[in-house]
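Service request form, structural biology core

Requester: graduate student, group of Dr. S.
Request type: structure prediction, single chain
Budget code: on file
Notes: please return the result as structure tokens.

Sequence provided:
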Amino acid sequence: MPSVRELIRLAAKDEACGTDLAQDPWALNQDSSYGPGASIADPFPVDAPHQSALPERYTQASPEELDAMIAAAKETLGERVKILGHFYQRDEVVTYADFVGDSFNLAKAAKAHPEADAFVFCGVHFMAETADILSGADQAVILPNLAAGCSMADMATLAQVERAWADITAAIEAPVPVTYMNSAANIKAFCGRNGGIVCTSSNATTVLEWAFEQGQRVLFLPDQHLGRNTAHTMGIPDEEIVLWNPRKGLTPEELERARVIVWDGFCSVHKRFTVAQIERARAEFPGVRVIVHPECPAPVVQAADAAGSTELIRREVAASQPGDVLAIGTEINLVNRLAAQYPDRTIFCLDPVVCPCSTMYRIHPAYLAWTLESLVAGEIPNRITVDDAVAADARVALERMLAARPKAV
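Core staff response, request fulfilled:
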């Protein structure tokens, strides 16, 4: 099974979502857009972190030379440094990870290893922030490429949320703020100090049940689709779900009838999946099982056979049988890896166009080699630190999530 990078290299013009995907991330301007991939057209924040240029030792190195650098540095650093790799990372990076998982499980892995001096988080910025919040004060969390942000997280800034909160609470009783893990630390902190909570795609229903025990309404940040899909699983109709556009707001009447106020944010990877893709998969493969992530739009989730987190998707694939056909609606690197892991099944991405997460794809073995060799030299590059006061409030929201339990059936 070829890697996603190889698929991009071999793709015809209409088989990948941009010719620049074949270029190395340092060869592109990383300060004006999220880069090639699913998020290239998303609004880019002017205050996005800047990644300094890599030395030529890394940018000119062959894959074999980078592999040797990384292996030697890992051996030297030993147990002092752990590499955390998100499911959506490219294969060339995941192969070096000590732990592979979703954002929250990787942050928990950092918390579970107090003996480590540092964690190299091969993911995106909000993930490294969460790991910093949950790890020890004397442990460093490092993001190999500071330009690896997240367009969904950037769709809800603290200034926007605070303005929205003022407008909403002027019209109705304060809702319970719930933020998806895919949000900035200061948004988690906002929820913590306003009686709110954090959720993951695995426990969103449990968290919303908790929220409705605290109040009549929920403000769900920043992913409208996860918020809407979770509300649907709880039997909340569309008439009681309203979309908050930070540029327009809502009328008091619209707020009054709402039980769930979803923020106008989305994941550009999962927004690409459509009902038409599911229909095409069913026509081509009768009996196919369609599994999608709940960040997909509601019609896609409703047309699928199952919807759930990356961990659920992995479990569904593991529980399938040789000869089964599975069409999956999530990021291509994970789908491609599952297809390679289970060659006796037909596993493919619903989206026929190869279009990885723009910012996950910015983590490259060259950045990892540079990070690890810097640590060997006694330097700590690209350290992600969350302000103590922000971390304390965010930790409150995270601890509420950990304490929430599903309703007894």
